[in-house]
Please model this.
Amino acid sequence: MPLIKVELARGKEKGFLLELQNTVLDAVRETLALPEDDRNIRLIQHDPDFFTLKPPYELLVEITLFSGRSKEAKKQLFRHLIDTLHGRLGIAPETVFIVLSDQPLENWGLRGGIPADEIRLGFKIDV
Model:
């Protein structure tokens, strides 16, 4: 149940943006073995004057996820995300900035405000 936010400067075609959103989502779901219907993603375009990343970065991917994933799983997520973005969309690997934010289960209010550590999630976190 990660929350994914993808940010970039405005100027790309709608088809590219939809494929970008699906590519990021697919890579995260595949790597973390999430259910197929786990779709929590926002794609935000900014006016170029209000979106500045240190070169060579052009794309910011922020993923907030439950704590518990191993360092190896995170490394696999980084690699798979970069490889998939490059393979499907031709995005240069060095232009992608990825940030993960691990949050304890008790910090997530789900299914009507129930803490996530009190819910049977239906997927493994400790991968």
